[in-house]
Design brief:
Chain lengths: ~160, ~375
């Protein structure tokens, strides 16, 4: 029985994206401002794709992926509305925000760069379904069929 | 800022990841409330007539429903959404955990180091223990890496991920500390075995210890052991227990062959573990329970019901076919009480039954009714 290999296979199959991660700078015990520094090479990565045969739900596998992406988009829109709501309520309560100024706002260079990085991470997550299929095809330790997994519990 | 975490090893997510959890919870609640009940209509109108026209032997076979339902567009759509909701939950938990993993592992180490002066629990890992194939073949519940994979040295990631996703999976039904399984089994024990005063309790397949600690709280003074094959979950379980101030002793062992001396326990319990084993492991575990119990000792296994008619059986097995709970299919029509008797328990003291609980519609799973199943046997 081969035990699953640890991080190297999984981490190697993912595109590098550490610098774009939201929340990295606010991790407990992490100094502020590390976001722009070089990514720490030793930081552990958690696998993103579950081992096992992903069922195909629709006649065309492309529909499966499109639905996956649609759900991620739905999620992100919900998150964004929540965040916007948080910000607007906080600002309103402090009498900081004039809502009319939102319409005429233009981002500066730093804001543009930060938005770009966030967008990259976002697109990466939306495209997860396509990435998952590639891992199923390319990773040697992935089961090929459902029967293979059933056999593991049946014997 | 107030710490809203249930305990010190819980990875507190930032605003947007919390909003993703909220979205997944809302999505799953909505799927349970709106689309899922419609699946019975799809079955009754489109699938049942096909089965009725076919051979009689297939009419009561939940497996025969699967290909017919999987050809129905409405089922395809609900099923694909349900699957995606599970994946989204893991993705959010991973994004909450990964940037904090080093810090969380350090917190867990600190809590473990001061355990003797803290709650008084312990942790014993066995690096030589072979993780069974029914855990390594596919990642149960779609948790990337399963229960056992380590992503860094001495890490607690698998535990942290499981803790967070269980809360989202159940849409809040598992309570703030994810203790609902043990609470329901304690209800059962109080109702059926009110005089029980165990001094040595074993929780098999304890994972993050969320079902271990309620037994330690209910029976203060008893020595409570939790065993599991997954080291990262046990590390998390130990730190979590110390953070919550409840003494429990966790060790890395396989429930099929624990290494404890015969007659070591007055009470052996497990919580939704049996359906995550295998055809050979299940009887081995029951035999081990029999061996571990002192004379008069009690075994209680909490399980998820597997449905009352062919349609419900098919729906409960959605998790088997789409959420990598593969062995659940084998359990569907298995007589657990008969198996326990084969494994050494007396027929007169062995029972397997269901008991009902109330549950709001957004927390219902595959059935209008809500109930648990318990296998009980006395040594």
């Amino acid at each position: 029985v081969a035990r699953k290999s640890k991080t190297s296979v999984r981490a190697g199959s993912r595109p590098p994206r550490r610098t774009a991660r939201r929340g990295a700078a606010s991790a407990p015990g992490t100094a502020r401002g590390t976001r722009t520094a070089a990514a720490p090479a030793a930081a552990p990565r958690i696998a993103r794709v579950a081992r096992g045969k992903r069922p195909q739900y629709f006649s065309d596998p492309a529909i499966d992926k499109l639905l996956s992406m649609t759900l991620t988009l739905m999620e992100e829109l919900s998150v964004t509305r929540d965040r916007l709501d948080t910000v607007e309520r906080l600002l309103e309560s402090r009498r900081v925000l004039e809502r009319g100024k939102i319409e005429s706002f233009a981002p500066d260079a730093r804001a543009t760069a930060e938005r770009g990085a966030r967008r990259t991470a976002y697109v990466d997550r939306v495209l997860r379904a396509a990435q998952a299929e590639l891992e199923e095809v390319t990773r040697r330790d992935m089961p090929r069929t459902e029967d293979e997994v059933v056999e593991a519990v049946a014997s | 800022v107030a710490d809203r975490r249930p305990h010190a090893v819980w990875p507190e997510a930032d605003h947007d990841v919390r909003a993703r959890f909220d979205f997944v919870g809302a999505l799953r609640g909505q799927l349970s409330r709106t689309l899922m009940p419609g699946m019975r209509s799809v079955f009754e109108r489109r699938v049942a007539p096909v089965l009725a026209a076919g051979p009689a032997t297939r009419r009561d076979d939940f497996r025969a429903i699967r290909p017919l339902m999987e050809a129905q567009p409405a089922y395809q759509f609900w099923s694909a959404l349900q699957r995606r909701s599970q994946e989204l939950a893991w993705e959010a938990a991973i994004d909450a955990t990964e940037p904090r993993l080093g810090a969380l592992t350090a917190v867990a180490r600190r809590l473990a180091a001061r355990a003797r002066r803290g709650a008084g629990g312990s942790l014993e890992l066995d690096p030589a223990l072979q993780v069974p194939r029914y855990h390594t073949a596919a990642d149960i519940h779609l948790q990337p890496g399963g229960y056992h994979t380590e992503f860094g040295s001495g890490d607690v990631a698998a535990g942290a991920l499981y803790d967070q996703v269980l809360r989202v999976y159940s849409n809040g039904n598992t309570g703030p500390l994810n203790e609902v399984f043990a609470e329901r089994l304690l209800d059962f024990q109080r109702a059926h075995w009110p005089g029980l005063r165990p001094r040595r309790i074993l929780d098999m397949g304890c994972g993050i210890g969320n079902s271990t600690l309620p037994w330690a709280r209910a029976f203060r003074g008893a020595r409570v052991e939790g065993i599991d094959v997954a080291a990262p979950q046990l590390r998390y379980a130990h730190a979590r227990a110390e953070a919550l101030g409840v003494p429990a002793h966790f060790s890395q062992r396989n429930a099929e062959s624990t290494g404890f001396a015969a007659g070591s326990f007055d009470l052996v319990v497990s919580h939704i573990m049996l359906h995550e084993t295998s055809r050979s492991a299940l009887p081995a575990i029951l035999r081990e329970c029999r061996r571990l119990l002192a004379p008069g000792g009690l075994m209680l296994h909490l399980e998820i019901p597997r449905g009352r008619d062919p349609y419900e059986k098919f729906m409960f097995n959605w998790e088997a076919w789409n959420n990598n709970e593969t062995f659940a299919v084998f359990l569907t029509d298995l007589d657990l009480a008969a198996l326990a008797v084969e494994c050494g328990f007396e027929a007169s003291s062995t029972r397997c039954g269901e008991f009902a609980v109330t549950r709001p519609p957004e927390q219902r799973l595959y059935s209008e009714a809500a109930w648990w199943k318990v296998l009980e046997a006395r040594a």
